Amino acid sequence: MNDYPPIENHGLIGDLQTAALISTEGNIDWLCLPRFDSPSVFASLLDKDHGGYFRIRPTGEGYVTRQMYLPGTAILVTRFMSPEGVGELIDFMPIAGDEPTLHHRLVRIVRVVRGRMHFEFDCSPRFDYGRETPRLEVEDFTVRFQGSTMSLGLSLQRNWQDQGDREVHRTGDGGIVGTRTLSEGEMAGLVLESNPDGAPRAYSAEQIRGLLDDTRTFWRDWLAKSTYRGRWREMVERSAMTLKLMTYAPTGALVAAPTAGLPEQIGGERNWDYRFTWIRDASFSVYALLSLGYTEEATKFLHWLGERSKERPDGERPMQIMYRIDGSPDLSEEVLEHMPGYKESRPVRIGNGACDQLQLDIYGEAMDSVYLGDQHRLPLTHAGWQSICKIMDWLSDNWDQPDEGIWETRGGQKPFTYGRLMCWVAFDRAIRMANSRARPAKLERWTEARDSIYNQIMDSGWQWPSGLCSTLRDGRARRIAALHAARRFRLAPRPDVAIDAASYGRGARLGQPGLSLQPQRIARRPAG
């Protein structure tokens, strides 16, 4: 178990179609190609022995590492510091573009800032979640890993093998290893490419620097579009770049996470695949990006969302809670029995069997993001408005159903308060959009549903003095989601009640450490 690095000791890089996790030890231990939701080529994060990895690090011991990003970019720098010198590993993925492609590149540059250091690399991919060991073909400056459905090319910078102290050779398990000694000011690069056309090509130092410059320019130009100018600019920009890295550029869909199978608790069974687009999560992300001025990303996602709402026949549930990044509804769940999981956390799952669950809150999050886009004058076509009307008409008949809720419970449906509250948001936002643009709508029906939800929450979803309950007529279980939404949308049963979401240390009352969410009485200010 100790051979697995802490999950937080990783940096994220990507090309807007897939992403890689790189540890502070210089190991790529998660990468799926050619898309976020494709099978892995490196997955040592879930199987340290047979999952596949690509490691670059100094030889020997006695060094410490630090990881950071080049300012204003998604270019990751892992710094190795030892008594002999200081070296850096620079990792990035050149942007793949807006069209789906099988060709992706990941560039790794080693350079020495001070002194002299001896580096080694070890590349041992395993395709299809560790189930296939590719065939290895080695030429002068290139290596090809050939599998049954894909291939990887590894290109060494031409001067990697120019020194007498270098050594590149095969390993017994189908990988390739190499060493290189660098002095201050020197660099060496490697380029990993998926499904190269023909034989992998060797790259010169100038070509690798050109890829670095182009990638740096892309990220800094993208950040320049942000309208945020507050005091937390560096943190806000880093968060925005993370959301951008989890966006599939060809469709605008955002994945909930670029990983699969990582445990909620070490040794636990809740090890889900999050490489899909949740309506809820993506809607919140669009809300954040729009607030920063990124209208292009919001427009693309809202178009993707509109397409999903058109796919089901009238009368059926309008949307699933999640989809693949290309919009496919097929998320069949499979257990990878051969993988031990992160720190022996089994089972490792791919796909997601919760995709068919009924979670009514997604309509509130979706309508809230569409409403925000409408406020920002993003285009909403007549066909798009008709899709919204179809959703709201279905919701008018179904908002009072029990569902699995935001927690995606697999133990049966319940009347979750949060789901009711977000249905109220859906009706409220749809009514506002109809009124503000004089759009045709069944306003009387929508208004009646909205008001019925409000009254139900106030009558059955609030338990004084505990506050909003997770389920109607039930004071047990979680309250956090409902209280968060109530605070956001300013709902409370009495005018002298506020919701404190900023206090720490009293969360044990809710069974959640650290964060306390509970109603508090507000002392009325004396008149005059």
Describe this structure in words.
- With 528 residues, the protein is an alpha+beta fold.
- It folds into 3 domains: 214 residues, Beta-galactosidase, Chain A, domain 5; 239 residues, Glycosyltransferase (Alpha/alpha barrel), CATH 1.50.10; 48 residues, no CATH class.
- It contains 10 helices and 25 strands.
- Strand 7 and strand 8 form a beta hairpin.
- It is elongated and about 75 Å long.
- The N and C termini lie far apart (66 Å).
- The relative contact order is 0.08.
Which SSEs are present, and which pair or pack?
Layout (H helix, E strand, L loop, with lengths): L9 E5 L4 E5 L3 E6 L7 E3 L10 E6 L5 E6 L6 E7 L2 E8 L12 E20 L2 H4 L4 E4 L3 E5 L4 E6 L10 E4 L5 E8 L3 E8 L10 H19 L9 H13 L1 E2 L4 E2 L22 E2 H13 L3 H16 L11 E2 L10 E2 L13 E2 L10 H15 L6 H17 L18 H21 L5 H18 L1 E2 L3 E2 L11 H9 L8 E8 L10 E7 L7
Antiparallel strand pairs: 1-2, 2-3, 3-4, 3-5, 5-9, 6-7, 7-8, 8-9, 9-14, 9-15, 10-11, 11-12, 12-15, 13-14, 16-17, 18-19, 20-21, 22-23, 24-25
Helix pairs in contact: 4-5, 4-6, 5-6, 5-7, 6-8, 7-8, 8-9, 8-10
